[in-house]
Amino acid sequence: MSAIFVMIGASLLIAIGFLIAFIWSVKSGQYEDDYTPSVRMLFDNTTPQEKETAINQETFTKTKNKK
Amino acid sequence: MIVKDKPEQKTICFHCGEDAQDQSFKIEAKLFCCRGCQTVYEIINKNNLCSYYDNQNSPGINQKQPIRNGKFDFLDDEKISNQLIYFQDKSQKHVIFYLPQMHCSSCIWILEHLNNIDKGIIKSQVNFIKKEVSIIFDFHQTNLKKVAESLALIGYEPHISLNDADKSKIKKYDTTKIVKIGIAGFCFGNIMMLSFPDYFSIGKLEDPNLKFWFNYLNLLLSLPVFFYCAAEFFISGFKGLRQKFLNIDAPIALAILITFSRSVYEIISDTGSGYLDSMSGIVFFMLIGRYFQNKTYQNISFDRDFTSYFPLGVIIINSDGSEKQVSVSELKVGDRIKIHNDEIIPADSILFLGKATIDYSFVTGESIPVEKSIGEIVYAGGKQTSGAIELEVIKKVSQSYLTQLWNNEVFKDTKDEQKVSFIHKISKYFTYVLFSIAIIAATYWLIFDNTKVWGAVTAILIVACPCALLLSSTFTNGNMIRILNKYKLYVKNASVIEKISDVDTIVFDKTGTITEQVKSQIIFNGMDLSSEHSQLIRSLANQSNHPLSKSIISFLPFSKNLNIKNFKEFKGFGTSGLVNNHFLKMGSSEFVLGQNTIQLNSGSKVYISIDDEFTGYFNIKNNYRKDLEKIVTALGKNFDLKILSGDNDSEKNNLENIFGNKTEMLFNQKPEDKLIFIQQLQDKGKKVLMIGDGLNDAGALKQSNVGIAISDNTNNFSPACDAILSGNNFYLLKELINYCRKGKTIIYSSFIISVLYNFVGLFFAVQGDLKPVIAAILMPISSISIVLLTTSLSSYYERRLTKT
Questions:
Q1: Cα dist. B776→B40, B202, B276 in Å?
Q2: Torsion of CA B278, B227, B272, A16, to 10 degrees
Q3: Whole-angstrom Cα distance, residue B718 to residue B722?
Q4: If DSSP codes are grouped into helix, strand and coil, which group holds residue B315?
Q5: 0.95 exceeded by the pTM?
Q6: Rounded (to 5) percent helix, strand, coil in chain A
Q7: Cα-based distances in Å from B788 to B58, B224, B436, B671, B741
Q8: Which DSSP state fits B228?
Q9: Is B363 helix (H, G, I), strand (E, B) or coil?
């Protein structure tokens, strides 16, 4: 029967961990704006190449060579 | 008849998507409608941001109206700019700008790549719902003015008003509600789990040790629910009692208190395991209900006051002629200020220099700008429309004409929402009935078995908690708010729905409400108007006071007035005269052409003939809202309709055609007049719904039982109102009011269900024999079924709404 005490304790601890994670996420403002992030993640991070080549000539050629 | 219809071509501006017919602005194969759009494209292209155009077709903001150079000069002033900065360290400053132009995903993209345009900007992050961008910039490399100018350069001119300077108004996103729900849910779930063994063996756990531990663990878990999550019910209930008013929170608080104390007693005395699961469940469900109902719309500010109209900075001219930027709130009587074209006058003042043509449409609703000459008083809130002027301030900002309206008592007292709602009336009776049942049960058990008194009374109060009643109203309202939101009627809070359903009189404002905000549309049909002809027509129209002539004058390009001989005005027909030796006639077709033509589409036509040769006609569209006539006839059956207008009565005939001659119409109404008119109606016992728009209705909107502001752009200034309705959905007005009326039906029917549940619970409770398992089953079932019922009913009525 003592196993159940350990299990209950463990389950409570895990649940409390999730509760703390939830409170942290709320407090850090993750629910403040529920629209913009959904759009933001769809943007490509790469900017058009013309200027990129001029500035980052090195990195650009490197990645090219890899291909 | 010579009617020229321009063929539709798909030549639209690459930047903003507007018509780019003349093809004069062109880069490579890309067409632009104006120089401004082209410039913005060049900047975007130069800075390598052309992905802007990939996400969305023609996402830009039209640049036809250029922004004045030096418009943001006031941000150079340390005092002013510091009012906007909300965080600052050794190298960075943080600022939030409100950009009403934001409208699509491309906007987000470009605003989050501001760094490409101004290297000093470290990070920019968009909150699309609030239409805000928060910018972190290195103030060694750039400054606030430059940041604002970069934004303006790509078409996102930040809106900076006096309101922004008041930091106390920055509303922090309120997280406590969600945290409370989270904690209550967590505790509820765990208590439920720990109580399970107890449910099945009904009171007799085999291992007494296990029972002991589970009970105390439950007690521990219920502490945050009782002391933290449920605190708002206690506070609100107590506040109500202190005002000698039994609000709906009082019986709930009592139920929670009794459940908790009885459970604590049972656990400590080792006589049972209490009802902690029921208690935390109740709190959890009710918090969710509240959250649903109070979910406000961040993107709409209901509480904008006059400060959001006024600019933040203004140019003061010193006695030596030098110019200086100061914050508007620092303006003193006697200061000389300079106002540029399209700027709003911040304080009542006397015109000192320049030609003032002031558009008071915000304040009075009068759409035609007023000309003022030197020495005359100009009032705050007017917008200068003809070049720069110099003014001498005669009243401080806080005392001016416009702000006085806000000082009216109506704006000060916040209506006590709670006392109005019918739910609170029901809950009052509910509480009385509940107490009488408890007393009867107590006396019964006193006589027959006095060991059961305490058990029966607490059980009654536990099981008959009015939470089902509260849940039915909160979930119904929450769901209705969401549905109304879908139809672009944004209500301020849940009580507005109920107030709308009680309305019996509807008062319309004219300008901007039943007419569209776009000024009257004028189209000239006929031969091409040469500049000579337009000068002739303008000169003749200038002689006439008819509103149609005024519209024509505003339509035609400015030209010098020519001499007129033989000017004649025929009332109801038109005018004629000899202008520059040309004989002009303008007016109805009967007057000009000598024959009646059938009026096909709505709108007034003004026919023109020069030297007895028909030149064409002006079509001046009645810019009434779509389907106005239909709405009015539909509403007229059930409501008393009235019209208030700040304008003159030139439209009276047209309005009578639509509204019928029984409708009361008042013209030339000042903002105070409108307020008083509403008050008088209310004194007669009417429940008034005021529908208005601008600032000039603010008093009336606030005074009325429900004030709905019609807005073609929900991010526009919206004055003190209870709800905002998008202009495009104005035609749904009647359906939406009907839908609000259904709200009561839904709440009543779910209330009946909850009473049935209560009967079952009370049946056990009065016997003094309420087992925790019964409470634990009854409570969630009743809550969940009520939530389901209200949501499905409100969605059902919504479907009926769209059918009609």
A1: 65, 12, 9
A2: 80
A3: 10
A4: strand
A5: no
A6: 70, 0, 30
A7: 44, 28, 31, 46, 20
A8: I
A9: coil
Contact B525, B3 (CB under 8 A): yes
Architecture of the domain made up of B73-169: 2-Layer Sandwich (3.30)
Structural domain B522-620, CATH architecture: 3-Layer(aba) Sandwich (3.40)
For residues B391 and B345, the answer to whether their CB atoms sit within 8 Å is yes
Report DSSP state, residue B128: T
* Average pLDDT taken over every residue of chain B: 78
Q: Do residues B733 and B432 make contact, with C-beta atoms less than 8 angstroms apart?
A: no
List the B336-339 sheet strands across, edge first. Answer: B323-327, B313-317, B336-339, B389-393, B349-353, B377-378
Within 8 A by CB and 6+ apart from B595, the residues are B589
**Other Cβ atoms closer than 10 A to B425:** 12
Cα–Cα distance for residue pair A19/A13, rounded to 1 Å: 10
Other Cβ atoms closer than 10 A to B291: 15
pLDDT(B404) > 80: no
What dotted CATH number matches B332-395? 2.70.150.10
Given a cut of 70, is residue B498 above it in pLDDT?
A: yes
Phi, psi (rounded to 5 degrees) for B577 = 180, 165
Q: Which residues of A touch B179 (CB under 8 A)?
A: 23, 26-27
| Tokens, residue B778 | 């009854």
Q: Calculate Rg over the CA atoms of chain A.
A: 24
**Dihedral through CA A55, CA A58, CA A61, CA A65, nearest 10?**
-160
Q: Residue type at B342?
A: D
The number of folded domains in chain A is 1
Distance from C-alpha of B152 to C-alpha of B317, rounded to nearest angstrom: 26
Distances (CA, A) of B296 to B492, B622, B798: 7, 36, 21
φ, ψ (nearest 5 deg) of residue B606: -120, 115
Structure tokens of B448? 């027959």
Tokens representing B309?
A: 């109209």
Q: Is B460 helix (H, G, I), strand (E, B) or coil?
A: helix
Mutate which: B128, B133, B195, B284, vs A, most A CBs within 10 A: B128
Q: Poorest-confidence range of B164-168, B214-218, B733-737, B775-779?
A: B164-168
> Does residue A56 register a pLDDT over 50?
no
CA distance B26 to B38: 8
Name the nearest CA neighbour of B184 among B129, B211, B224: B224
User: A9 to chain B nearest CA, in Å?
Assistant: 10
Length of chain B as a residue count:
804
B contact set with A (CB within 8 A): 48-51, 55, 105, 108-109, 112-113, 116, 125-130, 173, 175, 178-179, 182-183, 186, 189-190, 194, 207, 209-210, 213, 217
Nearest neighbour of B50 by CB, restricted to A8, A29, A48: A48
The Cα–Cα gap between B369 and B535 comes to 21
What is B487-518+625-741's CATH topology? Rossmann fold (3.40.50)
Q: What is the pLDDT of residue B301?
A: 55
> What pLDDT does residue B230 have?
92
Contact B136, B124 (CB under 8 A): yes
B472/B750 Cα distance (integer angstroms):
6
ipTM, interface predicted TM-score of the complex: 0.71
Q: Which residue of B has its CA nearest to A50?
A: B48
For residue B392, pLDDT over 80 is answered with yes
DSSP B597: P
Amino acid letter, B137: F
In this prediction, residues B264-271 reach a mean pLDDT of 88
* CATH 3.30.70.100 residue window(s) in chain B: 73-169
Helix (H, G, I), strand (E, B) or coil at B456: helix
Domain span at residue A50 reads 2-66
Using an 8 Å Cβ cutoff, are B324 and B517 in contact? no
The token pair that represents B581 in the structure block: 């030796």
